[in-house]
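Illustration 12: 4-carboxymuconolactone decarboxylase.
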Amino acid sequence: MDKDAFEKGLKTRREVLGSEYVDNSIQNAGEFNMPMQELVTQYAWNEIWNRPGLDRRSRSMINLAMLTALNRPHELKLHLKGAINNGLTKDEIREILMQTAIYCGVPAAIDSFRCAKEVFAEMGI
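Figure caption equivalent — predicted structure in token form:
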């Protein structure tokens, strides 16, 4: 593991997903899944999220669409919070999810709208 890349990724991961969630993920990682936490933090959150070329808002938009397509509600909820943290509005998120209905299927989009409604309620927005 590249300690510097991990620390940079950890900083970005905390800024997008929130320190509480990220710190819990790291603290609750055992011997079995800590290598996965290290991989995701170093590569996804440093090597990809910290690349120039796309801002965090754009990366969040892409993630919402991809996670809808992949039907990953747990990750979608995390990235909905991250999208809000990255400056997306409810209206923008609605438009992203509307577009997924056409390209990913209506059932996938309906599930994502359900997830978004839960996240918005949790966040008080």
